[in-house]
Write a structure and sequence with these properties.
- With about 500 residues, the chain is of the alpha/beta class.
- The chain folds into two domains: about 120 residues, Sandwich (Immunoglobulin-like); about 300 residues, Alpha-Beta Barrel (TIM Barrel).
- The strands form six sheets. An eight-stranded parallel beta barrel has the order 3-4-7-8-9-10-11-12, surrounded by six helices.
- The chain is globular.
- The chain starts with a strand and ends with a strand.
- Bound molecules: alpha-L-arabinofuranose (AHR).
- The site of alpha-L-arabinofuranose has 10 residues, from loops.
- Alpha-L-arabinofuranose binds next to loops.
């Protein structure tokens, strides 16, 4: 392999503003084993008095997740939240149409929101706009957020929560542009419904923020048209537009897979352009944020046709096992989110446990970290403060899927309070000498540098194998004269933590 040199320039004044901590989110859907035998398993040796697994809660804590979206996903579009409240032994067993499962409703709104409070994450709730509508959505806000003295708030009190939950973030349905969605509708119908639901939900609690469904992915035939038609009707009522994207390696095209971050960059740029065009047409100064509330690596080609036709209770669904290459790509996708943090305010890696997840569990047994756990936990722990504009000078190349792909990508944050800098580097090519120009910072002490290099081993099955993806120290960082030299391995993701304040 040949090597080439690359320069990254960082300056404390050259930033996009604050990174919203809600960028470090995840997603729990009633799907497969995410809830049942994932976060919740009464009878498990580590289960707490509520039936939730402590071993999983500990890993969620280590992951550093700040926000969790719930209860779907496609599941929410057929879900009646009223089935999941009250005495657990009186709750109905329902056929979940999205995943052809039996939903036992042993976990519902109260159980989830109490779990979220115990593990210290902000909940983001989705309402069903597929088979339910405005009334049920507003009533769920009433149930969660009105202190008392009304039918649904008193019902919550009777169910054991005297204080309101104060859920601030609400998704107006899920992927309503997708023909697979229960209750799928056209853009204009959804735009009117989203505006009405948002108005009613905000009448129940004026402090909430709501997310309108954008396109389910960049390749949807209605992409662009969907966003502008929906927002033509709902712009003034909503606070965010959603984005979803899943990536995978197709037919061994490793170069395109390693360039997914470029695909994510371009998808975000296209959504920003589309929603800002609506704002311009409407003469609005207020700009919508983006809620990237589903993103990850997901081998959807393995999933096609794999949904069991046998209806069962929490049978496995899409339990992808990840490789070191997937970990590098996940690190790179997080960098794309950081590099758009002026507009992307919320993001959720989908999903948290078992279902295309950083955490896997065995029913009755262990819980462990998949390879993709490591870049997520490292980024969530290191990034914070302002998102710096990392100016990268690197060669570009075309891949089958994307043109002009820089061989090296970078993202960085700087916390002006602590002086801490986090620098993230993806190397999509051969091993490379990277020169980081940070003269504008004055003091610059590299505290740690760790890297994950992709290998050819493929999916790492089991806890021991997956631990091989743990980041290793990147030796040899040299700082002198306002620059730091790093040698980053081929096809790798690297995180560097720096102190810029003496002490
Ligand atoms: O995360 C799995 C599924 O992917 C979600 O239910 C859906 O919203 C998306 O298509």
């Amino acid at each position: 392999m040949t090597s080439h040199s690359v320069r990254i320039s960082l300056h404390p004044e050259d930033h996009r503003g604050e990174v919203d901590r809600r960028l470090f989110g995840s997603f729990v859907e009633h799907m497969g084993r995410c809830v049942y035998t994932g976060i919740y398993e009464p009878g498990h040796p580590t289960a707490d008095e509520h039936g939730f697994r402590r071993d999983v809660a500990d890993l969620v804590d280590e992951l550093g997740v700040t926000l969790v979206r719930y209860p779907g996903g496609n599941f929410v579009s057929g879900y009646d939240w009223r089935d999941g409240i009250g005495p657990a032994d009186q709750r109905p067993r329902r056929l979940d149409l999205a995943w052809r499962s039996i939903e036992t409703n042993q976990v519902g709104t109260d159980e989830f929101l109490r779990w979220a409070a115990r593990v210290g994450v902000e909940p983001m709730m989705a309402v069903n706009l597929g088979t339910n509508g405005v009334v049920e959505a507003a009533q769920l806000v009433e149930y969660c957020n009105v202190p008392g003295g009304t039918h649904w708030s008193d019902e919550r009190r009777r169910n054991g929560s005297a204080d309101p939950y104060g859920v601030r973030l609400w998704c107006l349905g899920n992927e309503m542009d997708g023909p697979w969605q229960t209750g799928h509708m056209d853009a204009s119908t959804y735009g009117a419904l989203a505006a009405n639901a948002a108005r009613s939900m905000k009448l129940a609690d004026p402090t909430i923020e709501v997310v309108a469904c954008g396109s389910s992915n960049h390749r949807m035939p209605t992409f662009g048209y969907w966003e502008s038609t929906v927002l033509e009707q709902a712009y003034d009522e909503v606070d965010y537009i959603s984005m979803h994207a899943y990536y995978q390696e197709h037919d061994g095209d490793r170069d395109t897979f390693l360039a997914c971050g470029v695909g994510m960059d371009r998808f975000i740029d296209d959504v920003v352009a589309t929603v800002d065009a609506v704002a311009a047409r409407k003469h609005r100064h207020r700009r919508l944020g983006i809620s990237f509330d589903e993103w990850n690596v997901w081998y959807q080609s393995r999933f096609a046709g794999s949904i069991n036709t046998d209806i069962d209770v929490s049978g496995p669904r899409i339990e992808d096992v990840y490789s070191t290459l997937d970990a590098v790509v996940v690190g790179d996708l997080l960098m794309s989110l950081l590099n758009h943090s002026d507009r992307v305010r919320i993001a959720c890696q989908a999903q948290l446990v078992n279902v295309i997840a950083p955490i896997l569990t065995e029913p009755g047994g262990d819980a462990w970290r998949q390879s993709i756990f490591y870049p997520v936990a490292t980024t969530f722990a290191a990034a914070g403060g302002h998102s710096l504009r990392a100016r990268v000078s690197a060669p570009t190349r075309d891949t089958a899927g994307y043109d002009d792909v820089p061989t090296v990508a970078a993202a960085a944050t700087h916390d002006p309070e602590t002086g801490d800098v986090a620098l993230f580097v993806t190397n999509r090519g051969a091993d490379t000498e990277v020169t980081v120009d940070h003269g504008g910072f004055g003091s610059w002490q590299v505290r740690s540098a760790v890297t994950i290099a992709a290998d050819d081993k493929g999916p790492l099955h089991g806890a021991d194998a997956a631990a091989q993806a743990r980041p290793v120290d990147l030796d040899g960082a040299r700082t002198e004269g306002g620059v730091t030299m790093l040698r980053v391995p081929a096809e790798s993701w690297t995180a560097v933590r720096v102190a810029t304040r003496a002490g």
